[in-house]
């Protein structure tokens, strides 16, 4: 990629991350080369590589790809260093190609992603238990283990944890972790270089095969064919397979029916979206870890709770937010306060705001006050119905972008002036009635989860 194109990529990133982030973190980056899906970037120091990789890695990859580069990961090297050493990547380094470096198929698990660092809560306890069972390395009882769930919920982390644990318990085991992208890439390269026998040999000689993000096989018919044969060969030899995807096997689009049905033969477990308790648990665990990396950085009471409430999209973003806060607080020598968090994370907080619907608000409020939804929307006006109705109107105004007439229509075709009156009433009561203020706060929090 020519330097002027890299400059254009940086300009695009500036619009996304804002001027001050750009100046501190993006401007100093120098793109040295692009090869085999890896963008090699020079940075002034290792800390910066680590931080930029974790915080802006996804965005850099996204903007490089928009300019036509086919990048899957970033590799950072300190400008003067003789040996180039990856210092950070948007995903765990091994996820994107360690097997390429070690063609024998062995993997080097990323030591950050172990069972010890995986926080367990209701949404992921089943997936965790299944992963633990496979990691014990006993006789294969379910094959494959199929883990699925939305972006950034810990699938890759669990796969690395399994690999890590197996490598400790049974160092001689040949464990291969590979992303589906890498599988495709290797397959195409093998075809091109007429090395299909080597390819088959390598994949069929492993003891444990993990393929991450299998949804990327969609539409790749000949790769699917080869995957199907590899899969069967390993299952026939009673070798463990662990597969992950962003959705259940039956919902994989453009993946052949026979693969989908094979994937359902073992144990299928999903990682549910995180709940508040799990997010808070993860933040506490990460905070402990960061304490040793950034000694002296204090976090004010309530900040972790605030982040756990507001950033509910996925763990990667949650983690990125905390990293950014610690790095920033340590650079400027300040405590992580609520203000600093709001300032420093305004982009993340904006995009994480959950879109709440009028219907959800009405349902939540009627549950809270134990009234029937039909009463809330109906014409009757006794105080025990009118107040919750007005509270719901206030929440609709403050938590959605709907106009007053639109809100009115959804409240039994009421006029917009009635809605305005209700909202004003609650606004007044909020200042004078602490019970109402508490209810509003609680309902808002519950709706954001
Ligand atoms: N329960 C958890 N405890 C601790 N860290 C977690 C947990 N869940 C996710 N993470 C962290 O969140 C980040 C994203 O997780 P991971 O890469 O495993 O997600 P993924 O489900 O594989 O996402 P993708 O769909 O993008 O492949 C990682 O840094 C991981 O360590």
Automatic annotation (TrEMBL):
<feature type="binding site">
    <location>
        <position position="154"/>
    </location>
    <ligand>
        <name>ATP</name>
    </ligand>
</feature>
<feature type="region of interest" description="Domain I, interacts with DnaA modulators">
    <location>
        <begin position="1"/>
        <end position="90"/>
    </location>
</feature>
<dbReference type="InterPro" id="IPR024633">
    <property type="entry name" value="DnaA_N_dom"/>
</dbReference>
<dbReference type="GO" id="GO:0005524">
    <property type="term" value="F:ATP binding"/>
</dbReference>
<feature type="binding site">
    <location>
        <position position="155"/>
    </location>
    <ligand>
        <name>ATP</name>
    </ligand>
</feature>
<feature type="region of interest" description="Domain IV, binds dsDNA">
    <location>
        <begin position="330"/>
        <end position="449"/>
    </location>
</feature>
<dbReference type="InterPro" id="IPR003593">
    <property type="entry name" value="AAA+_ATPase"/>
</dbReference>
<dbReference type="GO" id="GO:0006275">
    <property type="term" value="P:regulation of DNA replication"/>
</dbReference>
<feature type="binding site">
    <location>
        <position position="156"/>
    </location>
    <ligand>
        <name>ATP</name>
    </ligand>
</feature>
<dbReference type="InterPro" id="IPR013159">
    <property type="entry name" value="DnaA_C"/>
</dbReference>
<keyword id="KW-0547">Nucleotide-binding</keyword>
<dbReference type="GO" id="GO:0006270">
    <property type="term" value="P:DNA replication initiation"/>
</dbReference>
<feature type="domain" description="AAA+ ATPase">
    <location>
        <begin position="141"/>
        <end position="271"/>
    </location>
</feature>
<keyword id="KW-0238">DNA-binding</keyword>
<dbReference type="InterPro" id="IPR001957">
    <property type="entry name" value="Chromosome_initiator_DnaA"/>
</dbReference>
<dbReference type="InterPro" id="IPR010921">
    <property type="entry name" value="Trp_repressor/repl_initiator"/>
</dbReference>
<dbReference type="Pfam" id="PF11638">
    <property type="entry name" value="DnaA_N"/>
</dbReference>
<keyword id="KW-0963">Cytoplasm</keyword>
<dbReference type="InterPro" id="IPR020591">
    <property type="entry name" value="Chromosome_initiator_DnaA-like"/>
</dbReference>
<dbReference type="GO" id="GO:0005886">
    <property type="term" value="C:plasma membrane"/>
</dbReference>
<keyword id="KW-0446">Lipid-binding</keyword>
<dbReference type="GO" id="GO:0008289">
    <property type="term" value="F:lipid binding"/>
</dbReference>
<dbReference type="InterPro" id="IPR013317">
    <property type="entry name" value="DnaA_dom"/>
</dbReference>
<feature type="domain" description="Chromosomal replication initiator DnaA C-terminal">
    <location>
        <begin position="357"/>
        <end position="426"/>
    </location>
</feature>
<keyword id="KW-0067">ATP-binding</keyword>
<dbReference type="InterPro" id="IPR027417">
    <property type="entry name" value="P-loop_NTPase"/>
</dbReference>
<dbReference type="InterPro" id="IPR018312">
    <property type="entry name" value="Chromosome_initiator_DnaA_CS"/>
</dbReference>
<comment type="similarity">
    <text>Belongs to the DnaA family.</text>
</comment>
<dbReference type="InterPro" id="IPR038454">
    <property type="entry name" value="DnaA_N_sf"/>
</dbReference>
<dbReference type="Pfam" id="PF08299">
    <property type="entry name" value="Bac_DnaA_C"/>
</dbReference>
<keyword id="KW-0235">DNA replication</keyword>
<comment type="function">
    <text>Plays an essential role in the initiation and regulation of chromosomal replication. ATP-DnaA binds to the origin of replication (oriC) to initiate formation of the DNA replication initiation complex once per cell cycle. Binds the DnaA box (a 9 base pair repeat at the origin) and separates the double-stranded (ds)DNA. Forms a right-handed helical filament on oriC DNA; dsDNA binds to the exterior of the filament while single-stranded (ss)DNA is stabiized in the filament's interior.</text>
</comment>
<feature type="binding site">
    <location>
        <position position="152"/>
    </location>
    <ligand>
        <name>ATP</name>
    </ligand>
</feature>
<dbReference type="GO" id="GO:0003688">
    <property type="term" value="F:DNA replication origin binding"/>
</dbReference>
<dbReference type="GO" id="GO:0005737">
    <property type="term" value="C:cytoplasm"/>
</dbReference>
<comment type="subunit">
    <text>Oligomerizes as a right-handed, spiral filament on DNA at oriC.</text>
</comment>
<protein>
    <recommendedName>
        <fullName>Chromosomal replication initiator protein DnaA</fullName>
    </recommendedName>
</protein>
<dbReference type="Pfam" id="PF00308">
    <property type="entry name" value="Bac_DnaA"/>
</dbReference>
């Amino acid at each position: 990629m020519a330097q002027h194109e890299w400059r254009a990529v940086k300009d695009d990133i500036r619009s996304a991350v804002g001027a001050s982030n750009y100046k501190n973190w993006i401007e100093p980056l120098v793109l040295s080369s692009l090869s085999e899906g890896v963008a090699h970037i020079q940075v002034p120091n290792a800390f910066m590589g680590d931080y930029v990789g974790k915080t802006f890695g996804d965005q850099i990859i996204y903007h490089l790809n928009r300019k036509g580069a086919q990048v899957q990961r970033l590799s950072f090297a300190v400008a003067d260093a003789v040996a180039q050493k990856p210092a950070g990547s948007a995903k765990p380094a091994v996820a994107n190609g360690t097997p390429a470096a070690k063609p024998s198929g062995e993997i080097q698990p990323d030591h950050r992603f172990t069972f010890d660092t995986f926080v367990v809560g209701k949404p992921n306890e089943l997936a965790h238990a299944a992963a633990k069972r496979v990691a014990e390395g006993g006789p294969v009882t379910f094959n494959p283990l199929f883990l699925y769930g939305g972006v950034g919920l810990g699938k890759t982390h669990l796969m690395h944890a399994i690999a890590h644990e197996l490598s400790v318990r049974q160092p001689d085991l040949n464990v291969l972790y590979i992303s589906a992208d890498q599988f495709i890439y290797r397959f195409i390269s093998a075809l091109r270089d007429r090395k299909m026998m080597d390819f088959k040999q390598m994949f069929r000689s492993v003891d444990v095969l993990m393929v991450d993000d299998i949804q990327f096989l969609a539409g790749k018919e000949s790769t699917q064919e080869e995957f199907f044969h590899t899969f069967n060969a390993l299952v026939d030899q009673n070798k463990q397979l662990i597969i992950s995807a962003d959705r259940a096997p039956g919902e994989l689009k453009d993946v052949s029916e026979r693969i989908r049905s094979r994937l359902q033969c073992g144990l299928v477990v999903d990682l549910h979206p995180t709940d508040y308790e799990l997010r808070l648990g993860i933040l506490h665990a990460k905070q402990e870890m960061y304490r040793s990396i950034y000694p002296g950085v204090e976090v004010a009471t309530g900040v972790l709770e605030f982040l756990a409430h507001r950033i509910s999209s996925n763990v990667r973003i949650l983690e990125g937010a905390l990293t950014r806060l610690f790095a920033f607080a340590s650079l400027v020598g300040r405590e992580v306060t609520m203000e600093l968090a709001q300032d420093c994370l305004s982009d993340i907080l904006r995009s994480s705001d959950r879109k709440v619907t009028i219907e959800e608000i009405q349902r939540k409020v009627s549950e809270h006050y134990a009234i029937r939804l039909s009463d809330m929307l109906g014409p009757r006006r006794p105080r025990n119905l009118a107040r919750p109705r007005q509270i719901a109107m206030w929440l609709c105004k403050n938590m959605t972008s709907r106009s007053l007439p639109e809100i009115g229509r959804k409240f039994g075709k009421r006029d917009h002036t009635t809605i305005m009156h209700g909202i004003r009433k609650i606004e007044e009561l909020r200042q004078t009635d602490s019970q109402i203020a508490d209810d509003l706060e609680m309902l808002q929090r519950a709706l954001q989860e």
